[in-house]
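Intended use. Records such as the Biotin-dependent carboxyltransferase family protein entry shown here are meant for training and evaluating sequence-to-structure methods. They are not intended to support clinical decisions.
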Amino acid sequence: MSALLVVRTGPQALVTDRGRPGHAHLGVPPSGALDGPAYELGNRLVGNDDGAAGLELLGGGLRVRASGDRTVAVTGAPAPVTVDGRPAASHRALHLPDGAELTVGTPVGGLRCYLAVAGGLDAPVALGSRSTDLLSGLGPDPVADGDELPVGPWPGPIPVSGPVPVSVPGAVVGLRVRPGPRDDWFTDPHAALAGPRWTVTADGNRIGVRLDGPSPQRRPELRRNELPSEGMVTGAVQVPPDGPPVVFLADHPTTGGYPVIAVVEPADLPLLAQAPPGTGVRFTVLR
């Protein structure tokens, strides 16, 4: 059987694909790769069909051994990559002979690397996706040392491509947001979001990222009000009554009872997913 044997997982390794959108009515979040462009790039580099499953690596640190000849690609946050101890390039297709070991080191910028393998990981499907969902528990368990990850059939020839340019996240990331649906709960929602420079805290995961900064002030007549639980979307900027905002990511709860002051543009969420603690955040409010 063609497979990858996990010698070491690193801080966190999860099976991921495009996720399982459309099941919020069941209480199931969309899940899937937090840095969608990096995940999609990996599949293109190894010639996979769209949506093939790979690995999302928080903080790198993965070491895997090939069972059978494999072609792989490491994308996302730039990190040192070796094959049998020899330096190799990220963001391009790499050949792993049978028994070869691939190591992904700690990213030099950003948080999450992605490992694509030609044929995709043949993990069980739940509600149309192979992604691990940390909130609901759907999908495969987080990858552990010693796991054997089956690989699907070879999809076809590997495209010919050179290294792909990759950018390291800067000290400040810009996020575009659209106001609402509960921006009317705050005295000056535009200034509350766009005025401060926010900071990514260490209190974050695939469910959401908590920011450090001044808590947006509610209108006086609403300070003691409670909001009935309502639907939440990926990118929702939720404001608890006693602290700064939380930006929901792909494994977010599907309902919540705190007001959502704005929603981040989907195209900007991969920037936040790659932002290490201490990164500055600037909101631009769209009209």
